[in-house]
Design a protein that fits this description.
By secondary structure, the protein is an all-alpha fold. The chain contains 10 helices and no strands. The N terminus is likely disordered.
Length: 184
C-alpha cells in the first residue's frame, strides 16, 4: 500500500471534512467504515447521510474513487515512462508533463518579462490614441506579450483537458490527490 507524504496528507485533510473523516480511520490503522475501538469517533465523523460516514450513496464518494483513472498515477516511474499514450498511465504521464509546465512558473515568467518589455517600450500606453494603441499592440513587444499570454493560457487549457481525460471530477481535492500520487 502506498502512503501519502505528510505534506499531501495535510493538504488533503484541509480540503474536506469528508476526506478527514474517511482518512482518520485509515491513519490509525483501521478502515474508515470500521469504528475500531473508538465508537464515538466514528459516530462523530460529521456524517449526516446515515451510512456510517463512508460517503457511499451521497454522490461524494472517496477522493480515490472520484479520481477514477487518475489512480493510474500509482504506476512506477518506469511504468509512466514506457506507457502507451493511449493507455490510462500514458494519459496520466501527459497530464503530469502539462501540469509541470504550468506549475514551473516559466510560462508565467515569460508573460511577466514580455509585459515589462512592453511597458518599457510604451510607458504611456494608456494615454495613446486608439490607433497608437493598436500599433503598439502590433509591435514586436506587443506581439511577444500576446504570444506569451496565449502560451500560458493554452498550457492551462491543455493541462485541464488532460486532467479531464483521466478523471471526470472537477473537485480540486481530486487534482491534489493525483498530484500527490505523482509526487511520491
Amino acid at each position: 500500500m502506498k502512503t501519502l507524504s505528510k505534506f499531501a496528507l495535510v493538504g488533503l485533510l484541509a480540503l474536506s471534512p469528508l476526506v478527514a473523516a474517511n482518512l482518520s480511520g485509515a491513519i490509525a490503522g483501521g478502515r474508515p467504515d470500521s469504528p475500531g475501538n473508538s465508537e464515538s469517533a466514528h459516530e462523530n465523523s460529521g456524517s449526516e447521510n446515515g451510512n456510517g460516514g463512508n460517503g457511499n450513496g451521497n454522490g461524494n464518494g472517496s477522493i480515490a474513487s472520484q479520481a477514477g483513472g487518475g489512480n493510474a498515477a500509482h504506476a512506477s516511474a518506469q511504468g509512466l515512462a514506457h506507457a502507451s499514450d493511449k493507455s490510462m498511465v500514458g494519459k496520466v504521464r501527459a497530464y503530469a508533463a502539462l501540469d509541470a509546465a504550468v506549475e514551473s512558473g516559466e510560462l508565467q515568467q515569460a508573460v511577466t518579462d514580455a509585459q515589462e518589455a512592453f511597458d518599457l517600450a510604451y510607458p504611456d500606453f494608456d494615454t495613446l490614441t486608439p490607433e497608437e494603441q493598436a500599433a503598439a499592440l502590433a509591435s514586436p513587444e506587443g506581439m511577444a506579450l500576446a504570444d506569451a499570454q496565449q502560451a500560458l493560457e493554452d498550457a492551462i487549457v491543455d493541462r485541464d483537458a488532460a486532467l479531464a481525460l483521466i478523471t471526470k471530477s472537477d473537485d480540486p481535492a481530486v487534482k491534489a490527490y493525483i498530484d500527490a500520487l505523482l509526487a511520491d
